[in-house]
Amino acid sequence: MEGDVVTIAGVTGAGAPYYNGTFPIYSVATYTFKYYMAADPGASAGGAITCSKVIFQFDDLMRTMQPSTTIHLGPGVFQTRGFALDVGGWQAAAGQKIQGSGMYLTTLKIVYATVANKHYYAVANNINATNTLDYFEASDFTVDCNLGGQPVPMGSDFVPLACSALSIGGFARSILGRKGSLNVSQ
Question: Domain range for residue 15?
Answer without folding.
Answer: 5-53
